[in-house]
Amino acid sequence: MNHDVLEKNLLRPATRSALDELTHVPGAQPRAPRGPLRTDQDVRIAIVHDWLVTYAGAEKVLEQMIACFPDADLFSLVDFLDDRSFLRGKPVTTSFIQKLPRARSKYRAYLPLMPLAIEQLDVSAYDVVISSSHAVAKGILTGPDQVHISYVHSPIRYAWDLQHQYLQQSKLTHGPKSVLARLILHYIRNWDIRTANSVDSFISNSAFIARRIKKVYQRDAQVIFPPVDVDAFSLCTQKEDFYLTASRMVPYKKIDLIVEAFARMPTRKLVVIGDGPEMAKIRAKAGPNVEILGYQPFEVLKDHMSRAKAFVFAAEEDFGISVVEAQACGTPVIAFGKGGALETVRDLSGPQPTGMFFDRQDAEAIVAAVERFDELAQRFVPADCRANAEQFSAERFRERLFAHVRAAVPALRGVTLPPYVQYVPNPPGLEHSEREGQHELPADLPRILAVDQSGVLGGAELSLLEIVKALRSRVEVVLFDDGPFRSELAKTGVAVNVLDAGVLKNIRKQGGSLPKGQALKGLLALVRATAQRARAADVIYANTQRAMVIGAVAGKLVRRPVVWHLRDIVSAEHFGGKQLAIIKWCARLGLKHVIANSAASAQAFAQLTQFDSKRIDVVFNGISAEPFDALRAVPQATLRERLKLPRDAFLVGSFSRLARWKGQHVLLEAMVLNPQMHAVLVGAALFGEDQYEVELHAFVAAHGLGERVHFLGFQHDIPACMCAVDAVVHTSITPEPFGRVIVEGMLARRPVVAARAGGVLEIIDDHENGILCTPGDAHALADTLAELRSNDELREKLVENGYRSALSRFGTQSYVDGVARILKDVART
Ligand code: UDP
Fold this sequence. Notes:
alpha/beta; Rossmann fold; seven-stranded parallel beta sheet; 33 helices; 28 strands; binds uridine-5'-diphosphate
């Protein structure tokens, strides 16, 4: 069965917010601590959710359910969440699907097993079961003494009225696979109806879904609208002369119709925010009065929503969160009058209207509605829009849900809704849940003090971030410098302390005399502060060289073992003599164990220090494929447009910080030799190599490369940048310890050309999953790129093999597991 289409179109929770889809910033939600809220002291409650893989509309409902019943236990078919803060630290009991092969990426393919799997979750010990269901959660087995309340986001769509659409989109209209798919859906339909009988009370997220429930299960449902984070928006009464539409650009959103309508109204301005597979089609229809901004961060979207004269919405949604979000800004809505919008927008037929409807999904109807809106614009009062949106707040949701459950469970009568409290993650060391992040972790994980010298986002920091995300309730982080790394860490909910260490900034990697006077005082203060934090930990986990030196001394002071995650090749090519001597000294006196990011790093270290090889382990970095896979459907042209890169050129990308040893100049020299190619340099001079950056620019000017070389500076969205290019190059002129960018290039499904030295040799098998070039040899690089450009077959082979090896050898699970196990072993001995 083609589950990709199913995945994209039909298994989407009913209440996904257009805003979330655009911004990918789900975290801006209130959080609450595991507090002593014992409203349900004597009543044991289980909450069952379909699958935990993301934080979208259905999960926002779940989050508020947990806030209503903080002592409830959670069940789900699978749990592969990255950010699980909205679960308030709760463990999740999962089904056997969790452990099936490739369940993390392909759990949806196990659809035929899902009814069986949900029935195997044992909730017999609970008095009340609340299911949050858009697929199978409502089929959980309950007995006559239990109350089962089901919040239905939608009856399982692709089995019911959307079956034919699903089969068409999945290209399953005929043939043996089609027969099989139809049989499975038939079985699921029967199962779905049968299990409706054991639900005591249904809740639906809209009258629209209540009608579906009635049609399919012949049962009534109480409507409780899903929670919308209206507090993230504020009333703005000053409107400007433009209309706005914003959503993912997928066909059913009908953005093309809105753009077409505005092309017929050249005096009215439309702003379009969002991105997706329909972008090219939409752009083609846009006139000069239509401004297409592409994907925008949350703040930009919010700002446009606040200032727009009206929000235009042409999709038929079960609910339509963005429609409520626009009203929360005091912005009226012009919407297609079908589905959820009918319930969230008050039209001109009643008092205090907040918008109006058009009754056909076509450009003509939209034109007529916008013209009418303009005539009657003064009838829409921003404050009314805001007041209407507040009906859909999370607070109202909690009140209604709690009241519904209380009414259905006699033992809860008299119990009041617990106050809503901000969620603050547990301080490390107080509590341990066995499962963190998406990983199954070893039990009894020690308390870890992670130490890093940097505040910027270099490869070492990005690699540490992955560990922190997975182990965060057991980790506290100490940084010796402030910067974007701290904000990224803070987003994971981990405790971060920045111990200001101006002194370290002055000690450069190369050379540099040993600190004296003030600098020495500063260093000692740093050691003391680190030691103090280490008292609360079982193990010090140093992620960079200077962090290791400070950590080693601090570890001695408070008798804590120190593990160095070695991400450097400790040779004279990268370090000064004094630094190498200090590393040797620390290895002898202060280091318990070393985790090396490649055999090349391990070997250089062993050679330098004669460290016991039993105390060195190689653990390759793990890089998540998800952000790369998510871009598969986005056309390269869209990405290039977003980044302002030439549409048709053969584009070669470098994605390393600007530093001489990273060898960006080699790429520029190769560009001189290959006049038909363009290069894009992504990255900034992170560690004070500004002079090198100046030299690169001067080289470009001197060789007239200005038109063909594009400097993008530091970028956060590396997957998008990589998918925008035709080939990824790595040009380090001294041995690279690991080279994350190489694995990332493979995950982006781009052919990778890398410098033949160091850890790179452990990633690339020449001409199999990438190509190796002599470091510093611009001619060889130019020739290789020319060959790649002309040889489609070679490119395809490298891409296929590269992607496969990145997935199989550099996944995050084995990376996190490897590090966690070593830290645990070291802390125990
Ligand atoms: N990177 C980034 N933004 C940029 C340039 C690079 O986030 O503008 C990332 C890149 O994607 C990679 C990391 O920085 O994940 C660099 O890691 P690598 O191992 O290649 O080199 P290091 O910085 O550790 O020497």
